[in-house]
Specification:
Helix 2 packs across helix 3 and helix 6 runs antiparallel to helix 7. With about 260 residues, this protein is of the alpha/beta class. The longest helix is centred in the last third of the chain and has 15 residues. GO terms for molecular function: hydrolase activity.
Length: about 260
């Protein structure tokens, strides 16, 4: 994939693109909190056969550090600038965990540019889905996590996020490269801003995906509530945790492939 970046308000946001042709549909893969673009390495080869592919390091992650004045809206604006730079008008948004937060902000701001929305182990905007105690824990996550020696934290977090050894290894490397201070900054910024957004009204096909063994917070419960309230399809990915696209890439890829073929906007 070709590496590039945009400059916005003094921030440098990096992305990678594999462009089939200007007329092809585009998939944007957005990683979760404390990850980076490498978390979608199992998807690139398959989907680049038929789609333009973009992955990126979200603000406060990977090469997109440092970053001033973070908000999910500003991250969505950054993604829009990436699309404009590449002359891409319409996108299928795939967001893992907090990547789904950025994508929901993008849908609210630029609905005309969204072909479909796929959430992988993510959760919906809207405080009504959450108990105050759960939101309190999230907002203080960085303080709690910082009490643990960082290499131990990386190991525990990787094992909690993925059930496969390969998935754990990939996620561990992301955390280790991020570093303790940047982990604290990123988690605090994303979780604190999350409460500032109302539930999204989608005008495009939506697919909810969750790993069978996802043990991160209450992600599975939130997705069941999300699906029940909206009738969006919810698919459990077998033999997979929070990083389900790494744990069971064949099932995830086939499910995503089928959805993208069958959706009708």
């Amino acid at each position: 994939m070709d590496k590039n970046f945009i400059l916005t308000s003094g921030n440098k946001v990096h992305y990678w693109i594999k462009k089939k042709n200007i007329k092809a549909d585009t998939i944007v893969f957005t990683h979760g909190l404390t990850g980076d673009h490498s978390l979608f390495k199992k998807q690139i080869d398959l989907f680049s056969k038929d789609f333009n592919i973009i992955t990126w390091d979200m603000p406060l992650h990977g090469l997109s550090i440092p970053y001033k004045d973070f908000s999910l809206r500003n991250a969505a604006k950054d993604l829009k600038l990436i699309l404009e730079k590449e002359n891409i008008q319409k996108v299928n948004l795939v967001g893992q965990s907090a990547g789904g937060f950025v994508n929901q902000a993008f849908v609210q701001m630029y609905p005309e540019n969204v072909v479909s929305f796929i959430a992988l182990g993510s959760t919906p905007f809207g405080e009504k889905y959450y108990k105050n105690s759960e939101l309190f824990w999230s907002e203080h996550y960085s303080e709690i996590a910082s009490l643990i020696p960082y290499k131990l934290y990386c190991s525990l977090s990787a094992k909690a996020s993925c059930v496969s050894k390969e998935g754990q290894s990939i996620f561990y490397d992301c955390l280790l490269n991020l570093g303790k201070q940047n982990m604290k900054i990123a988690t605090k910024a994303y979780y604190e801003d999350f409460r500032n957004y109302n539930e999204v009204k989608f005008n495009c096909p939506v697919l909810l995906l969750v790993g069978q063994y996802d043990k991160i917070g209450y992600v599975k419960r939130y997705n069941k509530m999300w699906a029940k309230k909206t009738n969006y399809p919810l698919i459990m990915i077998p033999k997979a945790g929070h990083g389900a696209n790494l744990d069971n890439p064949s099932f995830f890829n086939k499910t995503l492939e089928n959805f993208l073929k069958e959706k009708d906007c």
